[in-house]
Amino acid sequence: MVTHPSILLIEDSPGECELFRLALAQTGLTVALHTEQDADAALRFLDHLAANIPGCSHGEAAGVVSTARVERAHSDRARSASTETMPAVSPSLILLDLNLRGQDGCDFLKRLRSDLRFSTIPTIVFTTSDDLTDVARCYTSGANGYVIKPGTFTELVQCIGDICHYWLTRHRVPHMIETPC
């Protein structure tokens, strides 16, 4: 089974989604990125993916998502960014804003963790809140990580690169091991 790293970003601000897309492109990584603006839409997206993967909750599925890719020059500076499409796959990582319009990210986390099809997808809360109560609530609800959004674009690029390097390259979950579903 061939898998491609992919991220589901759940963020209700189109401007924040675009900043994330631009920062991801600056990392030089090729990662499929799908964005949803609320928890219900994200769960519908995941349900759609699972319905297109016969007998398995992770792997390739029908459909397309956008891919952020940056080609690097020999000087390691970004030359160009493009958006392409590739086969949709169950996300390798979910980045979740805690404060969605009229919704609480912890409620989404609880729903996600209660569904065996999606319970092993690493989910990182990516938010502006540094409130320790929010941190504790998120981990209690099933978050794998909690990251405070950086203040500058340069810091955002570094942060996204760090997140992707760890969660998409180093970290392993059961569905990534070559065993039957």
Structure description:
This protein is of the alpha/beta class. Helices cover 35% and strands 29% of the residues. It has 5 helices and 9 strands, in the order βαβαβββββαβαβα. It has helices at residues 14-26, 39-51, 105-114, 132-141, 153-170; strands at 6-10, 31-36, 60-72, 78-89, 93-96, 99-100, 103-104, 123-127, 145-148. A 7-stranded mixed beta sheet has the order 4-3-2-1-5-8-9. The protein has a two-stranded antiparallel sheet with strand order 6-7. α1 packs across α5 (153-170). The longest helix has 18 residues, at 153-170. The chain is globular, with a radius of gyration of 16 Å. The model is unreliable at 57-87 (pLDDT under 50).
Largest sheet: 7 strands, mixed
What's the number of helices? 5
Percent helix, as a range, is 25-40%
Structural class by secondary-structure content: alpha/beta
Described by the principal axes of the CA atoms, the overall outline is globular
Instruction: Tell me the β content.
Output: 25-35%
Quick description:
This protein has helices at residues 14-26, 39-51, 105-114, 132-141, 153-170, and strands at 6-10, 31-36, 60-72, 78-89, 93-96, 99-100, 103-104, 123-127, 145-148. It has 181 residues and is α/β, with parallel strands linked by helices.
Compile the SSE list and pairings.
Elements: E1 6-10, H1 14-26, E2 31-36, H2 39-51, E3 60-72, E4 78-89, E5 93-96, E6 99-100, E7 103-104, H3 105-114, E8 123-127, H4 132-141, E9 145-148, H5 153-170
Helix pairs in contact: 1-5
